[in-house]
Fold:
Amino acid sequence: MTATTTAPPRPRKPPARSSGPPKRPVWKRMRDDWWIYLFLLPTVVGYGLYTVYPLVASWWYAFLDWPGFSDRGTFIGLANFELLWADDLFWNSFVNSMVFLALAVPLRVGLALLLAIVLNRRSTPFRGLFRTLLFLPVVTTGAIVGIVFTLILDAGGPVNLALVKSSLVDSPVDFLGSSGLSLYSVIGVWVWKWLGITLIYWLAALQTIPNELYEAARMDGAGNWKEFRYVTLPLLLPFLVVITLIDMVGALNVFDLVVTLTGGGPAFSSEVVEVYIYRTAFGATVPQLGYASAAAVLFGLLTMVLAVGQAVGIRAARKAMP
Amino acid sequence: MTATRSSRWLIGTGLALLCAVWIYPFLWLVSGSLKTNPEIFGKGLDLLPEAPVWENYSRAWSEVGFSSYMLNTVLITFGTVALVILRSALAGYVLGRYDFVGKKVLIGIFLVTFFLPEGYTIIPVTQLTDMFGLLNSHLGVILGLGAGGHAAATLLYAGFFRTIPKDLEESARMDGAGPLTIFFRIMLPLAKPITVSVFILQFLAAWNAYLLPLVFTLSHPDLRTLAVGMSAFVGENDTDWAGMAAAAVLSLAPVVAVFVVLQRQFVESLAGAVKQ
Structure:
């Protein structure tokens, strides 16, 4: 991922991978490379304004009492964080986000791995077709999928009709309208929608395992399970870390599905942090932009913890690999 | 794998059942868009409508204003895709092939902000757009979706441009071509496979975006994208199930069509992204 060039652009330049300081002074190099900075201009400006500035600004906003975009915020120190700390609804959304991560990610990663192993076998018929069908929900618009599923999971919708007809339940299940079930229903829809992309990741990972290894394992008399346990699994470990991380980030971006399926309800039972931030900032009669920013900052800290955890995890996985 | 015929058959059947369940919601949606309202919930499991009601589509298209939502979505999607491709190809080219002052810092910033969730920056981004006077405009949404982020696209380009032999550039430079000419005439055409990948991933992300277009068009209903318009439609008339289903089919059709046409590239670009 790190870009190290081996091609010196001009004969006069030292090779890129020089360990010592460059021969020419910095300002002169920068002047000679003016066109490079011209190429970087759109990225530097756009990224600076829309990614780096928001990151920094959120921290500043978190210390303001700021009742709307047209107003100027007033500095109130840590008051937002104190209020957040005592805000049951914030912790409720935080716990919901954690439950979402803890349930949805393993489900998505695990199911996708199982399917990938089956779809990777040469003997499986219609592999391409099955892969395509499982991938189809991925390309669809999350907000619209959410709306469609409000009909499908409705008391008179097809799922409940099937359940009642097959006598699995006596009366229709209120998937989205009961506080005990709503979050799990959202998780189910989320896994359904995104499983296909994880499946593609796993299939790509499985492709990297050379066939000779399987042949060797079979020569040694390994069965299916042993083959999986001693060949497939160890080689997939580094991919497991990366794929889990990608899916965890995905599980923090569930605004569209949650809002359209349940709106975070009933009684905040499916409100995740993202929806909490939106509601505080844009959904309330008096926008509490500073307060919402403080919630976003805490949410951001969580993301950073995840990123650090990823770095540690990858390092550990690399060490475990011979 | 020496699979016996019966186990093959068993696995195939199991997968077929799973896939049937998997795409059932789409089949149900298409059939619902051709039913009358009472028919949708009356005999929910029956996929074939008694007599297809095409009128649902014309209602969704003209009365609800989905034609303008579609136009907004197309504009915003292609604007965003063009912006991201140009921006990340230019930056990826110099990052991949040249060494310059500040390069390490730039790559460091990319990696630190690689996984930033959207919900985290929506307030500052909205405030920024408001400051530029671009709230409630197509350009505001395009910049919001495409100006920041997307470090992955830049790094994909950088990785590709690093692999190109340098004689190409050298000889072009001998002929007196400037950096811009070299980039647009030689380098960008060479990077076509990467451009296809970035196009696909960005198209998908922009077409399906919800949070940012929702916030940016809160006070301007005529600028809504399909996803935002759809949820507004549900809020305003929640009894016209058939019209809603038709609107949903109309909204999903383009992106599904793009997927069917570019299926192979889709899968390859995603697989390539994870192998990186």
Summary: DSSP finds 13 helices and two strands in chain A.
